[in-house]
Amino acid sequence: MENYDLYFAANKKLWNNKTAVHVASDFYNLAQFKAGATSLNPVELAEMPDVKGKSLLHLQCHFGMDTISFARMGATATGLDLSDAAIAAATELAASLEANASFVCANVYDANEHLSEKFDIVFTSYGTIGWLPDLNRWAAVIKERLKPGSIFYMVDFHPVVWMFDDNFSFIKYSYFNTGEPIVEQLSGTYADRQADLHDTEYGWNHSLSEIISALLNAGLTLEFFHEHLTSPYNCFNNTVEVTPGAFQIKGMEGKIPMLYSMKFIN
Ligand SMILES: C[S@@+](CC[C@H](N)C(=O)[O-])C[C@H]1O[C@@H](n2cnc3c(N)ncnc32)[C@H](O)[C@@H]1O
C-alpha cells in the first residue's frame, strides 16, 4: 500500500495553522453560533433524518460546529478530525456550550483504531474526500462504524468545481483521480483570504463514479443521490449570490453543479 504519511503530515500542519484563523473568522461566525444559531445548511437539514436520540459520527469535523449543532438537535455526537488544533478547539467549544459532543483526533483512515462504537448515523460534509487519496479505505471505515440498518449521509462540493483554476477561468485539473496528489501552495484561506497562511497542501480529485462505487463496493446501498446548482458557502473566487445564502460561479450560473448529496443505508 502506498505510503501517504508525508502528505497527511503536511495537511495536518496546514489545518492546524488554519484553525485559529477560522475560529476567529466572520466566515464561521462563532459569536452567532454561540448565541444559538445552527451551523448546518438547508441542504443537510432538509435531507438528513431526525438525529434526536441517535448516535452520530461526524468525520472530518474541523473545530466541531456542525458536530455540536447535531448535539443541540438531540444527537449524541462524536467528531473526528486529523488536526489536533481543530480537535482542541472543538473540545473547548463543546465544553463551553455544555454540548453532548465528544471529539477524537485521528486520521479518518485510522478511525477504527480509535473508535469501537457503532453509530446510527455517519455524516461528513463540505471539503472532505479531497484530502483523501484512496476512497476504498475511506468507505471501509464508514461501513465498519455503522450499525446494521443505519445511514451514511454526505454533502460536498461537486467534483466539477475542483476541475477549475482558482478563478474559474479554465479547466486546470482532471475530473478523475490521477493517483498523483494535486500539490498547491496555499496563501490565505477560504475563510480569510488575507490571512498570513503559507502552506503546501496535497489533495486528490474524485469522480462521482469513484465516490459512489467505493461506498457500494463497501456493501452500502444507495438511497438517493442529488446534485445542486448552488453552494451555501461563499468559499470560492468569482462567485455571485443568486439568492440569499446561495452562491454560483459568475458566468456559469445555472450551468455547473456546485454540490452533491447522498444517503446510503447499511
Ligand atoms: C474543510 S474542513 C471540513 C469542513 C467542515 N464542514 C467545516 O467547515 O467545519 C476539512 C477538515 O478535514 C480534516 N482532514 C483533512 N484530512 C484528513 C484526514 N486524512 N483525516 C481526518 N481529517 C482530515 C481537516 O483537518 C479539516 O478539519
Automatic annotation (TrEMBL):
<dbReference type="InterPro" id="IPR013217">
    <property type="entry name" value="Methyltransf_12"/>
</dbReference>
<dbReference type="GO" id="GO:0032259">
    <property type="term" value="P:methylation"/>
</dbReference>
<keyword id="KW-0808">Transferase</keyword>
<dbReference type="GO" id="GO:0008168">
    <property type="term" value="F:methyltransferase activity"/>
</dbReference>
<dbReference type="InterPro" id="IPR029063">
    <property type="entry name" value="SAM-dependent_MTases_sf"/>
</dbReference>
<dbReference type="Pfam" id="PF08242">
    <property type="entry name" value="Methyltransf_12"/>
</dbReference>
<protein>
    <submittedName>
        <fullName>Methyltransferase domain-containing protein</fullName>
    </submittedName>
</protein>
<feature type="domain" description="Methyltransferase type 12">
    <location>
        <begin position="57"/>
        <end position="151"/>
    </location>
</feature>
<keyword id="KW-0489">Methyltransferase</keyword>
